[in-house]
Specification:
With 210 residues, the protein is of the alpha/beta class. 40% of the residues lie in helices and 15% in strands. It is built from 10 helices and 8 strands. The longest helix has 12 residues. Bound molecules: glyceraldehyde-3-phosphate and pyruvic acid. One of its GO terms (molecular function) is 2-dehydro-3-deoxy-phosphogluconate aldolase activity.
């Protein structure tokens, strides 16, 4: 599946997850799917992350698996080897640019300025994360990039809530938004899967108008 197809299937929301316990991966994915959410971004911020990606890939639930917080080419390859379908980085750096010549799986690098977007385009990336979205000008800033960068599509993430997501989703250059509000640490710790399904239902019913 191309990155365009993956993100269209993921829309309107990519839940950004910090997973501490590999045993949580499968029930979490099932709770999200039950709530109509078709993707999950497991951030490589914990020791359990790569094993969680492996467990999900093996379970073959149909959920699109992203690996987040990929900071260099080694982590990009590790995410691919674990079975992630796509990778996400908060920004962009030389090792990721170089690896994109032979990308093991598609990667969304982060960019929030015109120069960062141009640099990402030069390295061959057209699907970008706009991170941190809320503190970098929000939907107004993303909208400003639609005209000069017609080929670029964004997944804004960072400081977005169920209340503010629609302003981003209404933009033609936004494919989906990312956010951690569906999977708060307390619900994961307490394994409150039906509460996560409820948050997923609410988020998956957000409209992507444009
Ligand atoms: O750490 C940032 C993630 O991309 C999600 O951001 P958030 O927690 O503001 O939704
Ligand atoms: C913040 C972000 O972009 C990430 O963790 O992937």
């Amino acid at each position: 599946m191309s990155i365009a197809e993956m993100l269209n299937k993921a829309a309107p929301i990519v839940p950004v997850v910090v997973i501490e316990n590999v045993e949580h991966a499968l029930p979490l994915a099932e709770a999200l799917l039950q709530g109509g959410v078709h993707s999950i971004e497991i951030t490589l911020r914990t020791d359990a992350a790569l094993d969680a990606i492996r467990a999900l890939a093996k379970a073959d639930t149909g959920i699109i698996i992203g690996a987040g917080t990929v900071l260099n080419a080694t982590q990009w390859q590790q995410a691919a080897d674990a079975g992630a379908h796509f990778a996400v980085s908060p920004g962009l750096c030389a090792s990721l640019e170089k690896q994109n010549i032979n990308a093991p799986i598609p990667l969304l690098p982060g960019a929030v300025t015109a120069s960062e977007i141009q640099r990402a385009l030069e390295a061959g990336f057209e699907f970008l994360k706009f991170f941190p979205a809320a503190s970098s000008g929000g939907a107004d800033a993303v909208k400003s990039f639609a005209s000069p960068f017609k080929q670029v599509k964004f997944c804004p993430t960072g400081g977005i809530s169920v209340e503010t997501a629609t302003a981003y989703l209404n933009l033609p250059n936004v494919v989906c938004v990312g956010g951690s509000w569906l999977t708060p640490a307390s619900l994961l710790r307490e394994q409150r899967w039906s509460a996560i399904s409820d948050l997923a239902k609410q988020a998956s019913s957000l409209d992507k108008k444009a």
